[in-house]
Specification:
By secondary structure, the protein is an alpha/beta fold. The chain has one domain: TIM Barrel, CATH 3.20.20.70. It has helices at about 20-25, 25-30, 40-50, 55-60, 65-70, 95-100, 120-135, 155-170, 185-190, 210-220, 230-235, 240-250; strands at about 15-20, 50-55, 75, 80, 90-95, 105-115, 140-145, 175, 195-200, 225-230. Helix 8 packs parallel to helix 9 and helix 10 packs parallel to helix 12. The chain is globular, with a radius of gyration of 17 Å. The model has no long low-confidence stretch (mean pLDDT about 95).
C-alpha cells in the first residue's frame, strides 16, 4: 500500500512536538510542576497546530480522549528505554502496530541506535514493524541515533549522513537525526537520505536565538522540519516560540 505523509505534514513540511522524554530521561531531569502533566503538552500541540505529537503507548492510551479532542495527529513510539542502564544502547518494542492503530495513531516512531552492538536486533525488529505498518498505510518515522564505543561524534558529517542513509536503506518514510551545527554537513545528510524525508531533533534546551538560527539552517539544508520537545514545553512562552519557528519553516 502506498504511504502518504499528508496527515502528518503541511505543504510538505512539519513541526512535531515530542514528549517521550519521561521514559527516556526520567521526570526529575526534564519536568517541572507544569509540564509533567501530559494535558499541558496536548494543549500546546493543539493551540500551536502541530503536525504531530509524539507519545509512548501509556500516555497515548491514558490520555486518548484528550488527544482525539485536540485533533493533532498522534505519533506513537513503538520502542524505548530508560537512561538508567549504561551498557550498549538497545530499545526493544513496547507497543505493536495494531495497538497504535487502535489508539488512533496517524504514524509510528521507532528508534535504532546505529553503532551499538545491538543494532542488528533493532534493525530486525524494525523490519517486521515496517512491513506491518506499511501494509496498513501507516507512515514510519525512524529515530536514527548513533551510539556505541566506536562513535566519537554523533553529529559529524560522516555519522550524520550515515544515519540518514540507514533510514533510506531500511525503508523509513521520515528520519529524525541530530544536527551538529554545520549546514553543509546537514545538506549532505539530507541528500544521503534520498526520497526519505528528514526532520531534525530539537535537542537539549538552548537559547531561543540559537534555536531559531538552527531552524533556519535546517530548512535551508533541505530538511522538512523539526521534532522538538524540551525547547518548547520547558519554555515559559511556548506559543510565542512555536509561532516564531513556524514562521521560519513555512516562510
Amino acid at each position: 500500500m502506498k504511504v502518504s505523509l499528508n496527515k502528518i505534514t503541511k505543504k510538505g513540511k512539519a513541526l512535531y512536538l515530542a514528549y517521550d522524554q519521561g521514559l527516556e530521561h526520567g521526570p526529575s531531569t526534564d519536568f517541572n510542576d507544569k509540564n509533567v502533566d501530559p494535558n499541558y503538552i496536548i494543549n500546546i500541540a493543539q493551540k500551536g497546530k502541530f503536525q504531530g505529537i509524539v507519545f509512548q503507548k501509556g500516555i497515548a492510551e491514558k490520555y486518548n480522549s484528550e488527544i482525539k479532542k485536540s485533533k493533532i495527529p498522534l505519533i506513537i513510539k513503538l520502542n524505548g528505554k530508560t537512561s538508567l542502564y549504561k551498557g550498549e544502547a538497545i530499545a526493544r518494542q513496547l507497543c505493536t502496530v495494531k495497538e497504535a492503530i487502535s489508539l488512533g495513531a496517524k504514524a509510528i516512531g521507532y528508534t535504532i541506535y546505529i553503532g551499538s552492538s545491538h543494532e542488528s536486533l533493532m534493525m530486525h525488529e524494525f523490519e517486521k514493524i515496517e512491513e506491518e505498518a506499511h501494509a496498513k498505510g501507516l507512515p514510519i518515522i525512524l529515530w536514527v541515533y548513533p551510539r556505541g564505543k566506536g562513535i566519537k561524534s554523533d553529529t559529524s558529517k560522516e555519522i550524520m549522513s550515515y544515519a540518514s542513509r540507514v533510514g533510506l536503506e531500511l525503508g523509513a518514510d521520515i528520519i529524525k537525526i541530530k544536527y551538529g551545527g554545520n549546514p553543509d554537513d546537514l545538506k549532505w545528510a539530507v541528500k544521503s537520505a534520498g526520497k526519505t524525508k528528514v526532520v531534525v531533533a530539537g535537542g537539549p534546551p538552548a537559547l531561543e536565538s540559537a534555536l531559531l538560527k538552527q531552524t533556519s539552517d535546517i530548512i535551508k539544508a533541505g530538511a522538512i522540519g523539526l521534532a522538538v520537545g524540551r525547547n518548547l514545553w520547558q519554555n515559559p512562552k511556548p506559543f510565542d516560540l512555536t509561532k516564531k519557528i513556524q514562521k521560519i519553516i513555512w516562510k
